[in-house]
């Protein structure tokens, strides 16, 4: 399940779409950068133009006022790819 009403932003600071899409499959193609922190801290994956190419196909299976059920197919296999791409388009994973 992905939450459909939490705010998301694109890399340029504009709000990402918060409404579930109803037109079938859509593709998120955004480069991902794995940020390494100090030892003992978790890695963070962010959308960044200097990152590696990444693509995820997404299909809306159902939704209500609070959440959406999505099927995700990662075309590439980057760390935390689905999580980063869904947050970018306004569907953060809960």
Task: Walk me through what this model shows.
The chain has 94 residues and is mostly beta strands. Helices cover 9% and strands 34% of the residues. The protein has one helix spanning 81-88, and strands at residues 2-3, 25-29, 32-35, 44-47, 55-63, 67-74. The strands form 2 sheets. A 4-stranded antiparallel sheet has the order 1-6-5-2, with helices on one face. Strands 3-4 form a two-stranded antiparallel ribbon. The protein starts with a strand and ends in a 6-residue tail after the last helix.
Question: What is the strand and helix layout of this fold?
Answer:
Layout: E1 2-3, E2 25-29, E3 32-35, E4 44-47, E5 55-63, E6 67-74, H1 81-88
Quick recap:
This protein is mostly beta strands.
Strand content: 25-35%
Cα-based radius of gyration, to the nearest Å: 13 Å
Helix coverage percent of residues?
under 10%
What's the β-strand tally? Answer: 6
Mean pLDDT: 80
The SSE order reads: EEEEEEH
Question: Which keywords apply here?
Answer:
two-stranded antiparallel ribbon; four-stranded antiparallel β-sheet; mainly beta; 1 helix; single chain
